[in-house]
Model the fold of this input.
Amino acid sequence: EPALGGLTKGDINEFPSLAKGLEPAPACIKQGGDLNMDFQVKKTNKKKERLFRYNANSIKFSLKNFKLLIFIFLIVVLFLLSTHKRNSSWTDPATLWKDVIKKGPKKARGYNNLGGFYYKQDKIDEAVQIYIIALKLEPNNALTHNNLGTIYHARRQIDRAINSYITALTVKPDYEKPYNNLGKVYAELGRIDEAITQFRIALKINPELIEAHNNLANVYATQGRLDEAISEYMAALRLTPDAPEIHYNLGTTYQTKGLKDKARKEYELALKLKPDFTLARQAIESLDRDFQGFRLR
Done:
């Protein structure tokens, strides 16, 4: 029979007072004090059930992640294929800007860039036609007027060039490039004071306009204002130290002032930056001949 409080029945019969207040032993305890194995089995089964549910959830989570990764991979592949197809169609800038025009036929941007490409390729007539189309779309586009003026200037259609630059400035008075371009035209026409004024206005709007510094220096040099020319060349070189043409221009100005050592240094820098720069090489050879002639005398 089950024990009461760990006492045998004989103990209870012999000492009845010991049984008072004692409760029956828990069902998990058998005679002799062994653990009830049913309790252990239930506990183990619950652990297995929880482990099974965890594994099942893990598998579901892994499958979900796997599907997500596959989806992302497919999107990336499609994007790369699309990019490759688009890039392969843009074999040159002309194709690119034609594509831009096709997608936005009523916007001047694509025409402006296509016209610029044609101009660089010396396809002047095509460039003019493209810019005219751009102006029909956006008559008040200062950039297009300036670009068209550049082409007219290159074609020696000076009056048209001046009109285009002035129109660009009428549309956008704070646009520095037409001032610089107008200054170049005036300098070529011998209208030096007007040229200087235009270059200075351009630099007032944009002090980092390298071409305007160089152009202003060139005009100063032709006037014999050598120190002012040197100052402008050096300002340009601070903005672009690797410009061989500006080093050459500075060298010629030094040479005019009789500063032959400084001139040689600038010519050598120009030749280093541009090994096929014939004018710089000839200038160095000229200095060498002068030096040899001085020694012979």
The domain at 93-173 is CATH 1.25.40.10 (Serine Threonine Protein Phosphatase 5, Tetratricopeptide repeat). DSSP finds 14 helices and no strands in the chain. Residues 1-5, 25-35 have pLDDT under 50 and may be disordered.
